[in-house]
Design a protein that fits this description.
Strand content: under 5%
Shape: rod-shaped
Largest sheet: none
Low-confidence stretches: none
Helix content: over 70%
Mean pLDDT: 88
InterPro entries: RSP_7527-like
Number of strands: 0
Structural class: mainly alpha
């Protein structure tokens, strides 16, 4: 290994970290969307089960 190999190795490591970060961001986005979807489904279900109120006269 000579002195010119080190920057190349460093860049390869940075690229690997960037790929891992991108995977983690994508997973977090998928998890967040799934959590939001479940919350909306619970809200819709609770609205359907809520007793219908008659408007006050």
């Amino acid at each position: 290994m000579n002195q010119f190999d080190i920057p190349h190795l460093r860049q390869a490591q940075i690229d690997a970290y960037h790929r891992k970060a991108e995977r983690l961001r994508a997973q977090a986005l998928r998890d967040g969307i799934a959590m939001l979807g479940r919350a909306v489904m619970r809200l819709v279900a609770s609205l359907r089960l809520a007793p219908r109120r008659q408007p006050a006269r």
